[in-house]
Amino acid sequence: MNQIPLQYYLLLSAILFSIGVVGVLTRRNAIIVFMCIELMLNSANLALVAFSAFLSNTNGQVLVFFVMAVAAAEAAVGLAIIVALFRNKQTVNIDEINIMKW
Amino acid sequence: MTLEVILFFLIAASAVGSALMMITRRNPVKSVLFLIINFFCLSMLYLFLHAQFIAIIQILVYAGAIMVLFLFVIMLLNLGDESLLTEKKSFRKWAGIAAAIVVFVELIVGLGLVWGNGQSQLSDQATAMGTVEFIGRSLYSNYFFPFEITSLLLIAAMVGVIVLAKRKAL
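C-alpha cells for the assembled complex are given below, as produced in the milestone run.
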C-alpha cells in the first residue's frame, strides 16, 4: 500500500537540515538564526519518525516527544536572551553582539 | 505513480520551498509565516508515516506555541527589515553555502542514501504505533524517569525566562 521508500524521507530530512545550516551561517538577524535552528531540529524529528515507522520501533517517536519539549524550553529561553540583548544593545545583529568572541 | 506518491512529492516540494523562502526573506515576520507552512508540511508527512500523535503535537506545540512566541517577540522588539542591518562581508554568504553543501554530502553518505539499502515498506505495526495509547504506554513505563525530568526542565526554563526578561541590565 505504501510505496514511498525510507530514503525519500531521509533525503528530505537532509535537504531541510542543509537549508537550516545555510540560514544559520548566512543570516545576520539573531531571531532568524534561531528559527533556522528550529528547522534543523524538525528535520532531525522527521528522520526519527521515519526510522520509527519503518523499523517498527516506538523509541523514535518517544524521542521526538522529548525533542519537542526541549525545543519549547529552548525557544523560550533563547527568545528571552534575545529580548535582554536587544534591551542592552538596541540591535539583534549577530555581528554587533561579539562580546564573547576572541 | 499513485495518489500517495504524488501527494508526497507535492508536500515535500512545498516543505523545501517554504524553508528556502524562510531563509531568504528580509522581513522576519514573513520568515515566521513561511516556517509555519513548513511545520504544517512536516505534520502532513508524519501522518503519511502513521504517526498521528506526533503530527498533532507538531501543530499544537510548534506551529501553535513556539511560533506564536517568535511572532510575539518580533512584534515586541518592533524590528524593521533586515536590510537595515549591515551586510559588509558577502564572501561569508558563499562560505556558508559551501559549508552547507559539505554538510549535505556528509549526511547523504552518512545515511547511506547513495547505495539505496533502505526499506521500502512501512512496518505492519506502524498504524498501531503512532497512537496516543502506544506512545503513552511507552512514555509511562520505559521512559518514566526522562518524562519526569522533562517537567523539571520546563520549570527551570520558566524561572530562567522570567529572570532573564525581567532584569534591567545584563
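Chain A touches chain B through 76 residues (CB under 8 Å). The first helix of chain A runs from residue 6 to 26. Further analysis is deferred to the final report.
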